[in-house]
Design goal:
The complex is a heterodimer.
Chain A (H helix, E strand, L loop, with lengths): L1 H26 L4 E2 L2 E2 L3 H27 L12 H18 L3 H14 L6 H22 L10
Antiparallel strand pairs in A: 1-2
Helix pairs in contact in A: 1-2, 3-4, 4-5
Chain B lengths: L1 H9 L6 H19 L5 H8 L8 H17 L1 H8 L8 H12 L3 H34 L4 H17 L5 H15 L2 E2 L6 E2 L13 H17 L3 H12 L12 H7 L1 H15 L5 H15 L12 H25 L5 H12 L6 H6 L1 H26 L3 H5 L3 H18 L4 H19 L4 H24 L6 H4 L1 H19 L14
Antiparallel strand pairs in B: 1-2
Helix pairs in contact in B: 1-18, 2-3, 2-4, 2-18, 3-4, 3-10, 3-16, 4-15, 4-16, 4-18, 5-6, 5-7, 6-7, 6-15, 7-13, 7-15, 7-18, 8-9, 8-22, 8-24, 9-22, 10-20, 10-21, 10-22, 13-14, 13-15, 14-15, 20-21
The chains are: A mainly alpha, B mainly alpha.
C-alpha cells in the first residue's frame, strides 16, 4: 500500500500544482479586454493543458498501480537523494554566511562519503581540500568570480 | 559564398593560442564526459556555462562547439570495449562494436568508430556552413503569425518525438512553459506567479534551470547507482587499448564504402535539424537504413564494421544539423544547443533570424571550430588520448561527483552573485530528478522553458494584429506552411508505426 502511494504521489503533486497554476491564472483577470489579449491569456491555456495532461497521467498511474501485484521498487537507497538535497541546502545557507572555503570542504567531503564507503577518511578529507582549492583557482583566479568570504 | 569565405577566414582565430587552448580543452572535457558512463557532454556544458560569463562570447561558443562534437564520439570507446555506451548516441555502436571486441577485433571497431565520427562530423559541419545562410535568409521571410506556428511546431515535434511517453512529454513541456511565465509580463507591467517573492519578478534565470536539470538531478540519480559504477570500473580494468587501434586498414574502410558514410551522415544531419530528435535517433535511423539496404542484414548486431560506421557517422553529423534551427530560428534541437543558446542569451545576444545576418562574424568562428573539431581534434584526441581513456573513465566516482557537486552549486551563484539562484538550481534539480525517476523527458521541459516567452509573445502579437481572429494562423502563407508541416510530422511520428530496431537494443532519445 505504501509503495502504491509512493508511486502515485509525484503524479498527484503535479496535478495539484497544475490546478493551483490554473486557479492563479484565472485570478490574474480576464484573458481579453476590448479584443486585446491580457497577461492571463497564455497562462490560462497552459494551465488548462497542464491540468488535462496531469489528470490523464494521474488516472493512468492510478489504474496501472492498482493492477500491479508485486512491489517492483528500485534497489537504490531511498534516503540517498534526500540526504544530498539536505546537505546542499545546508551548504547554500552556510555559503553566504561563513564563506566559500569551510562549507565547501565539508560539502565536498560529505558528497564523497555519499558516493563511496566510509573508509580512508583522512585521504578523502585531503582530496576535498584539494578539490575546493582547485575550485577557488578556477572561479576566483582564472575567471574572476568574487566568492564570499567569512569577512563578507 | 560570402559566409563560406567568412568561415574559412575564421580558421585564423584558431591560430591564437588562447582560443586554440579553449577549443582543445573543450574537446578533451567533452570526450572524457561522454566516455564516462553516466556523464554526458550536456553535463559538461552545463557545469561550464557559468564560466562563460567571464569569457569572450566567441571563444565560449567555439569551446561549446568542440564539446558538442566531442560528446558525440567519446561514448563509442566504452560502447565498443565494455558494451556500456558512454553516451546515448553511441548505443547503436555497441551493437556491432562489442561483438567485434569479443571476437578479438576490438581494435578494428575502435578505428571504424573514429573514422565514422570524423567523416560524419566533417560532412555535417560542411552542410551547416553551406546551407545555413540560405535557411537564415528564408527565415527572414517568416512573419509574426508564422513565427508562432514555427515555435508551436517545434514544441509539438519535441513532444511527439518522445514515442511511448507523449503525455509525459507534453506535461513536461507544460511545466517548462509554466516556469517561463513566472515574473514580469513581456508586454504589460504585470507580475505573474511571483507570490510576493521579489527575486522572482525578473523571472527564472536560464542558468539555474540548466544546472538544476542536468547537473544536480544527475548527482541525485547517480547516488543511487553506485553499485553499477563499481561493476563498470571492474569491467574497464580488463580492457587494454593501443594507439594503433584507432587506425583501421584502408581495405576495411573501402569495404564499408563512401556511400555508407555519406548516406548515414545525411540522415544524421537531417535528423539533427528536427527539434528533440538528437544523436541517438540519428544513429538509430542510419543504422536501420544500412541494415535495410544491406545484402547481408543478418550480419548486423554480430560485429559488422558497417554498422559502427553508419552509427558514428550519423551521430556526429547531428551536430551540424542541430545547429541549423538554433542559429537560424533560435530554436534549440537538443540540450547542448539549448545551452549554447543560453550562452548567447546570457551575453545579451538575441538568437533568431537576425543573428546570422547581423552577427555573422560571431557565428562563423563557431562553425569553423565545429569543422576543426571533426577533422583535426577527433582523430588527434583519439590517437593521443585513446589508450588512456579506460584509465580516465575509471576515475573514482566519489572524487568525480564531489567535484561536480561543487562546480554545479557554486556555478549557479556566478550569474547574479545571489544564493537565491543556488536555491533555485536546487529546487529545479529536485524537480528534474523526480521527473526523470518517473520517466518524464526533461529535455521537453527545458525547451518549453526556452521557447515559452517567444511563443506567448508571438501568439499575443498575432492575435492582436488580426483583432483576435485565430483564423490568421491558417490564412497567412508562412504560418500555414508550418501548420501543414506539423500535421505531416504528427502523422509520421505519432500515427505511423515506428521502425523496428534490428539489433534489439532499446532506443532512447
Amino acid at each position: 500500500m505504501f509503495y502504491f502511494y509512493k508511486k502515485i504521489i509525484f503524479q498527484f503533486l503535479i496535478f495539484i500544482v497544475s490546478v493551483a497554476y490554473l486557479v492563479t491564472a484565472i485570478n490574474l483577470g480576464s484573458p481579453m479586454v476590448d479584443g486585446g489579449l491580457q497577461p492571463s491569456f497564455f497562462p490560462l491555456i497552459i494551465g488548462s493543458f497542464a491540468v488535462l495532461f496531469s489528470g490523464i497521467l494521474l488516472f493512468k498511474e492510478w489504474i496501472l498501480e492498482k493492477r500491479r501485484a508485486s512491489d517492483a521498487g528500485d534497489e537504490s537507497s531511498p534516503y540517498a537523494a534526500p540526504i544530498i538535497v539536505f546537505l546542499t541546502l545546508i551548504y547554500i545557507t552556510a555559503f553566504s554566511t561563513i564563506g566559500y572555503f569551510i562549507p565547501s570542504v565539508l560539502f565536498v567531503f560529505s558528497m564523497m562519503l555519499m558516493f563511496s564507503t566510509k573508509e580512508k577518511l583522512v585521504q578523502k578529507a585531503v582530496i576535498s581540500i584539494v578539490i575546493v582549492a582547485l575550485g577557488y583557482l578556477i572561479f576566483e583566479l582564472l575567471f574572476g568570480v568574487r566568492l564570499p568570504t567569512l569577512r563578507g | 559564398m560570402e559566409f563560406i569565405i567568412l568561415v574559412a577566414s575564421s580558421f585564423t582565430k584558431l591560430l591564437d593560442p588562447v582560443v586554440l587552448a579553449y577549443v582543445i580543452a573543450g574537446f578533451i572535457i567533452g570526450t572524457i564526459f561522454s566516455a564516462i558512463p553516466g556523464l554526458t557532454a550536456t553535463l559538461a556544458l552545463a557545469l561550464l556555462l557559468p564560466l562563460t560569463y567571464s569569457l569572450d562570447v566567441t571563444i565560449a561558443l567555439m569551446a561549446c562547439a568542440s564539446i558538442y562534437m566531442a560528446g558525440m564520439c567519446g561514448g563509442s570507446i566504452t560502447a565498443t570495449t565494455i558494451n556500456i555506451p558512454g553516451a546515448p548516441s553511441s548505443m547503436m555502436t555497441a551493437l556491432d562494436g562489442y561483438p567485434m571486441q569479443q571476437q578479438g577485433k576490438g581494435a578494428l571497431a575502435l578505428g571504424h568508430a573514429a573514422i565514422g565520427s570524423m567523416a560524419g562530423g566533417a560532412l555535417g559541419a560542411m552542410l551547416l556552413i553551406g546551407l545555413a545562410p540560405f535557411i537564415a535568409e528564408a527565415s527572414l521571410l517568416v512573419q509574426t503569425t508564422g513565427k508562432f506556428s514555427l515555435l508551436a511546431f517545434a514544441v509539438i515535434v519535441i513532444v511527439i518525438a518522445q514515442r511511448g511517453k507523449v503525455i509525459k512529454a507534453a506535461m513536461a513541456a507544460c511545466i517548462g512553459l509554466m516556469l517561463a511565465t513566472i515574473g514580469l509580463d513581456a508586454m504589460e507591467p504585470v507580475t505573474r506567479f511571483t507570490f510576493g517573492f521579489s527575486n522572482l519578478t525578473a523571472g527564472i534565470d536560464l542558468m539555474p534551470v540548466i544546472i538544476g536539470t542536468f547537473a544536480i538531478s544527475e548527482i541525485l540519480i547517480q547516488v543511487g547507482a553506485a553499485k553499477e559504477s563499481r561493476q563498470t570500473t571492474e569491467a574497464m580494468s580488463k580492457v587494454k587499448i593501443r594507439r594503433r587501434d584507432f587506425i583501421p586498414p584502408l581495405a576495411s574502410i573501402r569495404k564499408i564504402g563512401i556511400v555508407c558514410y555519406v548516406k548515414s551522415s545525411l540522415i544524421g544531419y537531417f535528423v539533427g535539424t528536427l527539434p528533440g530528435a538528437g544523436g541517438s535517433m540519428g544513429s538509430f535511423l542510419a543504422y536501420v537504413e544500412t541494415v535495410r539496404t544491406s545484402p547481408n542484414p543478418e550480419s548486423y548486431g554480430k560485429g559488422n564494421p558497417k554498422g559502427i560506421a553508419a552509427s558514428e557517422s550519423a551521430n556526429n553529423a547531428v551536430c551540424g544539423g542541430a545547429l541549423v534551427p538554433m542559429l537560424t530560428f533560435g530554436i534549440p534541437g537538443d540540450p547542448i544547443t539549448a545551452i549554447m543558446l543560453g550562452v548567447l542569451v546570457i551575453n545579451g545576444i538575441q538568437p533568431g533570424p537576425q543573428l546570422m545576418a547581423g552577427q555573422a562574424d560571431l557565428i562563423a568562428p563557431v562553425l569553423a571550430s565545429l569543422l576543426f573539431s571533426a577533422v583535426v581534434l577527433i582523430p588527434l584526441t583519439l590517437f593521443l588520448l585513446g589508450p588512456y581513456f579506460i584509465k580516465i573513465v575509471a576515475i573514482r566516482k566519489d572524487v568525480l561527483y564531489g567535484s561536480i557537486a561543487l562546480l554545479a552549486v557554486v556555478g549557479s551563484y556566478v550569474a547574479t552573485y545571489s544564493t537565491f539562484q543556488m536555491m533555485m538550481a536546487l529546487v529545479l534539480g529536485v524537480l528534474a530528478y523526480y521527473m526523470r525517476k518517473h520517466d518524464f523527458p526533461v529535455i521537453t521541459m527545458l525547451l518549453g522553458f526556452i521557447l515559452g516567452p517567444n511563443l506567448e509573445e508571438f501568439l499575443r502579437r498575432s492575435l492582436a494584429l488580426s483583432n483576435g481572429n485565430p483564423m490568421t494562423f491558417f490564412t497567412s502563407l508562412d504560418s500555414l506552411f508550418f501548420v501543414v508541416l506539423t500535421l505531416v510530422f504528427v502523422y509520421f511520428l505519432a500515427i505511423k508505426k515506428p521502425l523496428k530496431n534490428p539489433g534489439g537494443a532499446a532506443q532512447s532519445a
